[in-house]
Amino acid sequence: EAGVAQSPRYKIIEKRQSVAFWCNPISGHATLYWYQQILGQGPKLLIQFQNNGVVDDSQLPKDRFSAERLKGVDSTLKIQPAKLEDSAVYLCASSLLGGFTDTQYFGPGTRLTVL
Amino acid sequence: GQQLNQSPQSMFIQEGEDVSMNCTSSSIFNTWLWYKQDPGEGPVLLIALYKAGELTSNGRLTAQFGITRKDSFLNISASIPSDVGIYFCAGRENTGTASKLTFGTGTRLQVTL
């Protein structure tokens, strides 16, 4: 079974530029998550989708971050404009239903460096 | 946002030694999870705990869900070189339709031969 796919794996941009990350979850998984992992810290949830609807975006900086999950499958996370403090690994995860005992499977992440 | 406190921050041990790490929170969680993250990869689930007081094993790994629901520990017995990595605890709270994970600060494990 294929895992969670993410691209690109690495991205370097200058501050104030825009960037987008793509995630393809495990086939059949209804729930998709985006996490931000700053160096030396654990992942922090940015947004959770159930199919193509948002169920939790309370920690998403909505003035510069946006995410969508068209057709309930792939998802993109965008930052516009980027700041230095956005340098981090952006992890995508998916789970079958998002329920109490569901396991979240993580992709390899996209490492973003903002100069 | 909240991050759970893990200790120790890092450990250097010899192959064959046992390892113990723990995680504490100011909040109560319904579920405690332990993940391992290798360089350049996403976290991988090791053990999930669903009830206060629960003790669960997975091979050489043993984890417990604290009675207060505010802490958990992970033990690794007879460590081997492939145990190297960063171990994260995570607490899960179910809020309506959302199932939110809050991660710890991580324990970096180094194993010497």
Q: Quick one: how many beta strands of chain B? A: 11
Q: What's the SSE pattern of chain B?
A: EEEEEEEEEEE
State the distance separating the first and last CA atoms of chain A.
Answer: 37 Å
Radius of gyration of chain B, rounded?
A: 14 Å
Number of strands of chain A: 11
* Gap from first CA to last CA of chain B: 38 Å
What sort of overall outline of chain A do the alpha carbons produce when their principal axes are compared? globular
Strand content of chain A: over 45%
Which spans of chain A of ≥5 residues are poorly predicted at pLDDT below 50?
Answer: none
Helix content of chain A: under 10%
Helix and strand sequence of chain A: EEEEEEEEEEE
Mean pLDDT reading of chain B = 92
The number of helical elements of chain B comes to 0
Structural class of chain B: mainly beta
Helix count of chain A equals: 0
Mean pLDDT across every amino acid position of chain A? 94
Q: Could you say which structural class the secondary elements and strand pairing of chain A correspond to?
A: mainly beta
Features of the shown structure:
heterodimer, A: 115 residues, 0% helix, globular, B: 113 residues, five-stranded antiparallel sheet, 58% strand
Structure explained in plain terms:
The complex is a heterodimer of chains A (115) and B (113). With 115 residues, chain A is mostly beta strands. Chain A contains no helices and 11 strands. Chain B has 113 residues and is mainly beta. In chain B, 0% of the residues lie in helices and 58% in strands. Chain B has no helices and 11 strands. Chain B has strands spanning 5-7, 10-14, 19-24, 31-37, 44-49, 55-58, 61-65, 71-76, 85-95, 98-103, 107-112. In chain B, the strands form 2 sheets. In chain B, strands 2, 4, 5, 9, 10 and 11 form a 6-stranded mixed beta sheet that branches. A 5-stranded antiparallel beta sheet of chain B has the order 1-3-8-7-6, with no helix packed on it. The chains are: A mainly beta (115), B mainly beta (113). Chains A and B meet through β5 and β9 of A and β5, β9 and β10 of B.
